[in-house]
Amino acid sequence: MLIVLFTFLGLVFGGTGSVLVYRALAGILRQMRLTREGLTAQAQVVAIVPSRMTVNGMPQATIRYRYQDHIGRPHEGKTPMMPADEAETWREGDSGVVRFDRARPQVSTWVGKP
Fold first, then answer.
1. Is the pLDDT of residue 1 over 90?
2. Which of 36, 55, 83, 89 could serve as a FRET partner for 62 with CA atoms 20 to 30 Å apart?
């Protein structure tokens, strides 16, 4: 009975871990591709959103931003979690730079200061 239980738990945790690793790697590769090949646009900070999450005791936050693609359509995006003190160097209305995918302009990555 223990063999079946531990096999089942191993499959559940292994499968969950595999999905999480895949999603993390896909996000990193997408961000690298956009940084290298994406189109550049000016973005406006819409909000600084604090999170309940902490990393090494430091609170985290995200920056929500708005930008227009190469044909003028508006899009919104948000940064990955970052230290709150870094996010708070930005204010609503500040301008930053994003890079977005020409084929899917709703996919973007925050670059920051020009």
1. no
2. 36
At 58-106, the pLDDT tens digits run: 999 999 999 999 999 999 999 999 999 999 999 999 999 999 999 999 9
Average pLDDT of the chain to the nearest whole number: 93
Nearest to 90 by CA among 79, 75, 106: 79
SS3 73: coil
Please enumerate in sequence order all residues whose Cβ is within 8 A of that of 76, keeping only pairs 6 or more positions apart, or say none. Answer: 46, 64, 65, 66, 67
Six token digits for residue 69:
């693609």
Q: What phi and psi values does residue 99 have, to the nearest 5 degrees? A: -125, 135
User: In this structure, how many other beta carbons lie within 10 angstroms of the beta carbon of residue 36?
Assistant: 8
- At residue 20, the 3 state secondary structure works out as helix
Helix (H) or strand (E) holding 30: helix 2-37
User: Rounded to two decimals, what is the model's pTM?
Assistant: 0.79
Distance CA 80, CA 66 (A): 15
What is the Cα 66 distance to its own chain's centre? 14
